[in-house]
Specification:
- The chain has 227 residues and is an alpha+beta fold.
- It has one domain (5-220).
- The chain is 26% helix and 28% strand.
- The protein contains 4 helices and 9 strands, in the order H-H-H-E-E-E-E-E-E-E-E-H-E.
- The protein has helices spanning 5-27, 31-48, 56-59, 185-197; strands spanning 75-91, 97-110, 113-122, 129-134, 147-151, 160-161, 164-168, 173-174, 219-220.
- Strands 1, 2, 3, 4, 5, 6, 7, 8 and 9 form a 9-stranded antiparallel β-sheet that branches.
- Helix 1 packs antiparallel against helix 2 (31-48).
- The longest helix is centred in the first third of the chain and has 23 residues, at 5-27.
- It is globular, with a radius of gyration of 17 Å.
Length: 227
Amino acid sequence: MTFGAADALDLLDWKRQVFSLYEQVRASSDPRSAWEHWRTTRDRLYREHTQSPLPTERRADFPGCSYFEYDPRARVFARVEPSEPVHCDVVASSGAAFPFSRIGRAQFALAGAEHSLDLLWNDGYGGGLFVSFQDETSGREAYPGARYLLDTVKGADLGTKGGLLVLTSTSPTTRPAPTTPRGSARSRRRNAACASRSTPASGSRANRPRRGRRSTMTRPASPLSGG
């Protein structure tokens, strides 16, 4: 597929809208309303935007992603524990490896227990913070691969509060395949499946979870995770 100026402008519009969406989420004083706005906007982009990962023929009747129920307990504030940078490669679903550096840990309390996740810095052009995880829902009720809580190079950034990172497992997204705009046919099929089965940035889920189950954000997924 040829990538031309028209594709570039369409992709730029998609990026603007995603960055603007997260800005609106950060500015909201009501996390639940912000989550609902995130969810509605993402579904609209998947349904209407020319850069949607969904095949064109599936967009008009796309019902939206399935989501875990909103849970305010899943919104946590993490203190950053710095460490000496350690290089690692993060492997995408396509098999391509991207350079990152582990720069610390995000420490937080969830469900009465202490947890931590790796803080990775994107060493590629533009930089950015990346935090991913897996939990007991991964591969059963959610996307089997890592979901990311933060990927700031793409705008997925919930900000800070009182010097603490804001993290929420009701708003993780799946790690997208690194493709050119609209990607290859194979990548588009993969992304379309993720769009309909997994977790976009406000609390989606792969399949309807069983009663009483929820995303718990308890297992780090980066290659340098220490538990």
